[in-house]
Amino acid sequence: MGVLDALGHALGVAGTMTWEITWSLILGFTLAAVIQALVRRQTITRLLGDDKPKTLALATGLGAASSSCSYAAVALARSLFRKGASFTAAMVFEIASTNLVIELGIILALLISWQFTLAEFIGGPIMIVLLTVAFRLFVRARLVSAARQQADRGLAGSMEGHAAMDMSIQSDASLWQRLVSRDGYTAVSNIFVMEWAAVIRDVVLGLLIAGAVGAWVPETFWQHLFLTGHPLAARLWGPVIGPVIAVLSFVCSIGNVPLAAVLWNGGISFGGVISFIFADLIIIPILIIYRKYYGTKMMLALLSIFYATMVLAGYIVEFLFSWLGLIPAERAAKVTDIGISWNYTTFLNIAFLLLAIALLVRFFRSGGGPMLRMMNGSPDSHEHGHEHAMPAPRGAGITEA
User: Fold this and answer.
1) Which of 59, 62, 78, 95 has the CB geometry, 3.0–4.6 Å to 89, for a possible disulfide?
2) Which of 331, 284, 330 is nearest to 307 (CA)?
3) Which are the contacts of 275, defined by CB distance < 8 A and separation ≥ 6?
């Protein structure tokens, strides 16, 4: 096979996966945009002032409702921390806003199987509980105080402008009245387009990497790496190696799901897939951002605690689902079937692409274009009262965070 043939094969695999998940991505982001349009940022900050169980449960729910790309979630967590949220609550919110979200669950079910969606939504809270216990045991008040001092310096990371924008509907009408109003349509379109702009790089990168890996890496390599010839060793090794692959792949957000599908077909354990997906918050670029935000010591603490809790959550999910008989017997993730045909996927893609076009048109017609240029703006330009830092689109009830 020549170089061009190999490249074409990889692009074909990536293109097929893209076609399979397009409608579900649009559906997931639309539902997430509707929820975010109804949840006001100031409400989130007000409710996360301590690390009591009730508060952390709220942080989990609000994080899941505030779906974000990994970079924006990390920036938003720091913003909440600077405004008075407890450090633990901010980290719980960060985890939930990337790993317990609608679009991730839909893509997992569509590309791999529904069991992975269930495992994600069970494993996420397990990881949060483990992380809370670890923070209580190992993260001292002095370290948190030093992290707050570093956070208050306001050093820029990535997606700062996006994280600082509160695009929710500001009317005092009922939820339904707000949602079906003109302002509601504008708010949903703004959030939809901005979330897509935030994740598109990672989604494309994830699909291209998955396509290349699926087309070029021989099956024997994965079998050796994942110890497929030794069932017990494979189950113990999967959650350990999964996050390491994620850290080195540089892919985060839902962009790591296509690669997770390739790894599953290659022989990684069920729990290994879950720990791999959780690890979008410790990839190398985000570790660099943690260092800017909170200092070197807290970055190392986050890396250690996040990694340990991801591995433990992977183990718990692996053995729980094995005991329940819920681990799929076949490894048939949709990563190698090349081709597009007239089936339900095609019709759904057409319908949801029309919806995406309608939201995109509304976004630009309402004056949302300047917001795209501010996605990586300074955090302090939004957080500290610069009234003209974020121009509000016409007809939208959008305010600063």
Assistant:
1) 59
2) 284
3) 238, 239, 240, 242, 243, 310, 311, 313, 314
The per-residue pLDDT for range 97-126, each reduced to its tens digit, is 888 988 888 889 888 999 999 999 999 999
Q: Quickly list H helices, 217-283.
A: 219-225, 231-249, 256-266, 270-278
251 phi and psi angles, rounded to 5 deg: -100, 135
Question: Distances from the Cα of 318 to the Cαs of 123, 250, 281, 357, 359, in angstroms?
Answer: 10, 25, 21, 41, 40
3-state helix, strand, coil in the chain (%, to 5): 75, 0, 25
Query: Cα–Cα distance between 80 and 95 in angstroms, integer?
Result: 14
Rounded percentage of the chain residues whose pLDDT exceeds 90: 35
Residue 386 phi/psi, 5-degree rounding, is: -80, 105
| Core vs surface per residue 64-74: b (16+ CB within 10 A) or e | bbbbbbbbbbb
Nearest Cα to Cα of residue 107 among 45, 31, 52, 49:
31
Amino acid at 275: S
Per-residue model confidence as pLDDT tens digits over 54-86: 999 999 998 887 766 777 788 888 888 888 889
Q: How many CB atoms lie within 10 A of CB 298?
A: 21
Cα angle: 345, vertex 325, 246; to 5 degrees: 60
Distance of CA 152 to the CA centre of its chain: 25
Residue in the block written with tokens 């096979």: 1
CA distance 293 to 369: 28
Per the confidence metrics, is the pTM higher than 0.70? yes
Burial 102-138 (b: 16+ CB within 10 A, else e): bbbbbbbbbbbbebbbbbbbbbbbbbbbbbbebbeee
